[in-house]
Amino acid sequence: MAYKLYTDKANKFNCNIEVEGTSLAKSQVRLVIESDEMTYMFKGSIQSNGECEVTIPKTKSFLSEGTTGNMRLEVIADDVYFEPWSSDFSVATNKKVTVQIAEQEEDKPKMKVQVAEQKEEPKVEKPKVQESKIVKKSPNTLTKEDILKKLLGK
Predict the structure, then answer these.
(1) Is residue 67 part of a domain?
(2) What is the distance between the alpha carbons of residues 91 and 111, in angstroms, rounded to a whole number?
(3) What's the CATH number where 80 sits?
(4) pLDDT (mean) for 59-65
(5) pLDDT over 80 at 148, yes or no
(6) Residue 37 or 133, more confident
(7) How would DSSP label each residue in 26-64?
(8) Other beta carbons less than 10 A from residue 91's beta carbon
(9) How many domains does the chain have?
(10) Which of 60, 63, 94, 134 would staple 7 via disulfide (CB 3.0–4.6 Å)?
(11) Residue % of the chain over a pLDDT of 90
(12) Boundaries of domain holding 22
């Protein structure tokens, strides 16, 4: 399982160390973090009871989220180098906020059209005028008969 480092909070690496043949007071500890691009080294402290602590700052400024690599603990007791622990690591973000925007509604004018049913007008039949009907003449009205009479000279 890969050790997790965080981009947005300080990382504390804690462990217990036992040293034989020399005192812890004469020992040094450091944590080395190696990625494909860079190698970082952080000094730690060892308490008299063997508790070791290394503080790694927020990695946002030097390791981005998703970065992976290898990390190891180095102990130097007197002039002897030890590598008692190593692990793969991955960088993650502790707190995340994601936003999903719902479709934006536009305030468009709304119109509703209701078409009335078309009614057929009742058909009214006009009475047919027959030519044989007698038309009453007014004194100022000429009829076909009058025009014909004048043309024929009658």
Answers:
(1) yes
(2) 55
(3) 2.60.40.10
(4) 92
(5) no
(6) 37
(7) GEEEEEEEEESS-EEEEEEEE-TTSEEEEEE--GGGTS-
(8) 22
(9) 1
(10) 60
(11) 50
(12) 3-92
